[in-house]
Amino acid sequence: MPLPNPREAREALGLLRSEVSKVVIGQDATISGLVVTLLCRGHVLLEGVPGVAKTLLVRAMAQALSLDTKRLQFTPDLMPGDVTGSLIYDSQTSRFEFRQGPVFTNLLLADEINRTPPKTQAALLEVMEERQVTVEGLPRPVPEPLCVAATQNPVEHEGTYPLPEAQLDRFLLKLTVHTPSREDEVTILRQHNAGFDPHDLAAAGVKPVAGAAELKAAQQAVDAVQVADGVLAYIVDICQATRQSPSLSLGASPRAATAMLAVSKAWAWLAGREYVTPDDVKALTHATLRHRIQVRPEAELEGVTADNVLNSLLATVPTPR
């Protein structure tokens, strides 16, 4: 079956954002970030306090995209096999059969990923990078597309295990899910007062407006977006500036630069352009780099954050014309 053309795919992705916005109020930037993540075949880390619709966002996106989704609640006693799957002995056949874990899906919600020990967190590394799970030496490919949407609470740290830098680097974007404005929160309450049930998205009016075919066509169109050498150099200059910043103990890696390139192309394509501008690079610089850089402890004591440093660098790195 032929894929939709790029114009049809862009229209479908535009409808996708509108459809999710029906139930996820006041989070337009986060919705767009999740769409960009899907276009780049990446994974996303959603950080926000409880109750800001992180889970609802992922469920609504899967509903509007007709994708299979699973939720995995990360807890201190979760084992790697609970994530990837494991061999189970079948007494009827006297053989070991592989039972697939939750990662065998299209959109995996890894809820509170920092509440499980590093051994279980690391179970996601192979599937995020290689799109496969290796059990007893046998690689088993996971379905395509695959996106891991992990959530974490930035406030409560008791009983948590911070993600190591190597794993944070596997997330294309880190999106901060803020509490809604007063007007948006009134709209949310108005919806609930009218009988909105977040567990029944179909009844709430969220309908499939795109599918795997539209997403694949969009991904191919994003790959074809043109990037001038001056813009490529601009991305490198931003990354090198993080490595030279006195406020940072860890700067952005070359992998971070390739991530900036990918999201810039996706952002440009969503805006209806076939080429990337410096503004496209700036649009998602914070989401792409904030989890890949480390602020020095002495700077943190002075109230400096990763976003503060990125604001300063974007203001000082020369923008190409």
Q: Keywords, please?
A:
321 residues, 5-stranded parallel β-sheet, two-stranded antiparallel sheet
Textual characterization of the structure:
This protein has 321 residues and is α/β, with parallel strands linked by helices. The protein contains 15 helices and 11 strands. The protein has helices at residues 6-21, 28-39, 54-65, 80-84, 118-121, 123-130, 165-168, 182-193, 212-223, 229-244, 254-270, 278-283, 285-289, 297-301, 306-316; strands at 44-47, 69-73, 85-90, 95-100, 107-111, 132-135, 138-141, 147-152, 173-176, 248-250, 294-295. It has a 5-stranded parallel beta sheet with strand order 2-5-8-1-9. Helix 1 runs antiparallel to helix 3, helix 9 crosses helix 11 (254-270) and helix 10 (229-244) packs across helix 11 (254-270). It is globular, with a radius of gyration of 20 Å. The model has no long low-confidence stretch (mean pLDDT 93).
Write the layout of secondary structure elements.
Blueprint: H1 6-21, H2 28-39, E1 44-47, H3 54-65, E2 69-73, H4 80-84, E3 85-90, E4 95-100, E5 107-111, H5 118-121, H6 123-130, E6 132-135, E7 138-141, E8 147-152, H7 165-168, E9 173-176, H8 182-193, H9 212-223, H10 229-244, E10 248-250, H11 254-270, H12 278-283, H13 285-289, E11 294-295, H14 297-301, H15 306-316
Parallel strand pairs: 1-8, 1-9, 2-5, 5-8
Antiparallel strand pairs: 3-4, 6-7, 10-11
